[in-house]
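User: Predict the structure for this protein chain, please.
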Amino acid sequence: MSKNIVKGPRSPARVMQLLEELASDTEDLTLAKLSARLDTPKTSLLSLLRSLEAENYIEVHNKAYRLGAKSIRLGNLISAKMKAWSSFPAAVRPFLLALSRESGETALSGVMGEEKDHGVFIDMIEGNGTIYLASVIGARRPLYCTSFGKALLAFQSINFIHNYMADVDPVSPLTGERYSKDEILEDLSTIRRTGISVTMGDSVEGAGGVAAPVFGSDGEIVGCITLAAPIDRLKENLKKYSELAHSAGERASQFMGSSMPYPGSK
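Assistant: Here is the predicted structure, written as structure tokens:
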């Protein structure tokens, strides 16, 4: 038995097409213009217009149509929702939850600090494993030796990276060891190519991380997603964890509106 499919001007799709036409034009539109744009007979379209007018979704002025109060309110509600979704912490949290669930490990999101010389963790989903990351939210982390810090640094401009590396003294916060700047630059090159940043025992004793960048609609990096785990478990599952983090970063970037090819994607 075939299903009955609603067609014509009363279908939900046609309603949205009509409202979109009115919203995209700076002038009020006559019945004739709307009929031509929607390729719909005037008689059929008039019935839909009258229904929308009765519900205050459109208004009529001098035989031309414009958006009504309810349509404007709906637009404002959608705009507010999009602003909430587009904020980095709220936008990536579902991907943190999925990453933690799929790996069983702790997942975090982080952004560049205001001074542009460190990263800051802003959200965390605790995993089932044994890793102690108390009070990590809001903690500052160096860009040169942490997985998410290196990911943040790798996708900055060449001038930014040059100036940062010229000024920084890359000393391990745990051991006091001084890192090689040439090796850091090599790591950044690899991260730009693969979309994955891995460090082990560089900022938290006995733990490591796998980080992936998240890009916004303008193609600029807005933050990172990180999977954190004890070093032994990270080494044992490095391929799997890297794939999971990479996938989370890529999907979060798409959700944030990025249309650029994601680093390391085939």
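The chain has two domains: 12-80, 87-255.
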